[in-house]
Amino acid sequence: MSAAPSTAQLLPGAGAFAITVGAAVAFGAVPLLGSDYLMDAVLTPFLALALAAVGLNLLTGYAGQVSLGSAAFLAVGAYATYNLHLRLPQLPLLVDLVLAGLIAAAIGIVFGLPSLRLRGFYLAVSTLAAQFFVQWALTKFGWFSNDNPSGVIDAPVLSVAGFTFTSPAERYVFSLSVVVVATVLTQRLLRAQSGRNFIAVRDHELAAKVIGVPLLRTKLLAFGASSFLIGIAGALWAFAYLRTVEPAGFNLDRSFQILFIIIIGGLASLRGAFLGAAFIVVFPLLLSRAGAALLGGVFDSGVLEMSQRIVVGVLIIAFLIAEPRGLIALWDRLWRAVARPAAIRNT
Amino acid sequence: MFDYQFLIEVLVGGLLSGVMYSLVAIGFVLIYKTSGVLNFAQGAMLLFAALTFVSLVERGSSFPVAFVITLAIMVVLRVSVERAVLRPLVNQPPTTLFVATLGLSYVIEGAAQLLWGTQVHGLDIGISDVPLDIAGVFISRFDLFAAAVAGSLVALFALFFRYTRTGLSFRAVADDPFAALAVGLRLPRVWASVWTASGIVALVAGLLWGARLGVQFSLSLVVLKALPVLVLGGFDSIAGAIIGGLLIGAIEKLSEVYVGRLFGGGIEAWAAYVVALVLLLVRPSGLFGQKLVERV
Question: How high is the pLDDT of residue A299?
């Protein structure tokens, strides 16, 4: 956080310029030039997971409440969007999306209520209740999946104001727009009083209470906002990326994956959420490519999956030992090494 | 008419399986108490131990030999985990440590299955599962055996903690690491032996659960059964783990039988969590957990 403003001060207009270039690349060059594979298998899941990580980071990184139930809220978002679309077809998709986020937020607030009494691991374990309850409810009650026997839902075509998003590039652009808007809003929330309240509660709850931070409101806002974001990420995951989802896809492993993203990326950093998501999405692809290239067909897919699990686990441990503050700390250090000398030369 | 006999049968079955939950939970408590780590990898360790044991037996070694070899492997694994993973992370926040053990569980699960294969192994420890008829109440013989083993292991640990020098040093470290360090206890050695002790617990629990469910990947998921037990009993209390286990076992079975049918069954997966949660709202540190005292 410290490096970016200082360079912006030294190079007026650099920040705006970077944002313009970034937007032009992300919205223009990538969808035009990128391959379908890149957008379908890499960028769209990256965006969905990054948004989920932004949501979890708000709760865990900023407000200090550890949650192991993120996948439940992804599922709520996905199934709520599906049902709203199915049962209230007159509503436009974007409204469905926001409503689904609000439903996820409501459920998040309910499961966040214990946070008023519980701390640390007691809270983390109790968030598992959300994980198991939601998965059970979605499988058990056919209504949620329009009576599909195994709870599978097929995504409707994404369409906004008559424009449909069907090709990989279009779905990527749709996800990107949603993620950008949601991230900007999150940043506003974090830079306002509410964000400072989150941090105060995280750093010292009692002290926060003494200086007048409303604990109840702050914690529930954190749970609500976090679940809202994760719910929308779930809708993206289901409708823009997979397009056919089942409750089992939102299992505990998915929750852990999102937790890994924010730990690897860096707690209490929105950029960290994106870096971590990129790492978690790209890394297994590279690994399986490398495995195939180096060893040919010697290994079957089972062995590959197991070795992938091992490598992911080792990497997480290695990361925590080498840089507990995550990729973002590495990034900032790199940035300082590159940008500061350049900025000094320019003055 | 209400069928009391059936109620008792369900209750006893629940309590007996609760003993097995306690056994898993104790593996967590040992480590949490002394080093403040919630070791999520306990389930993976359990799987690893059971898989190693079964594979050795399948390769023709006898039960005692396989047990000793597995025990040796577990001790080596435990000590090296303590050295390679946890020692470099000393003084990191608890969340970081927890995530490290999550990563560790990935590594161990992957390694166990890479080594020994992913197929389901049967494990027959020679207990027939013919129900025992006690005053008209049918009780599974296997459950009784498992409960007896788990119970004696727990008693053994209790005695060990109470009366041996090592046990005393465990308690000292759990009580106040700095004071323990100041009077000359070697923290790393204590940690290593605690990890070893919970490795033994993992092996026994793995064998019992493996005999019940078959030795396979899902064995590592018994951690998820142990977590509500921990929450209910308190993360740092062995007595809490035992009583919590019994309570959760009983509640789970009773709710499945009497409440579950209202929802069409399958509530076992979350009933324990909800019960633990409701109890936590009244007692935020579990039944026996130490109250968290915050200093400003």
Answer: 60
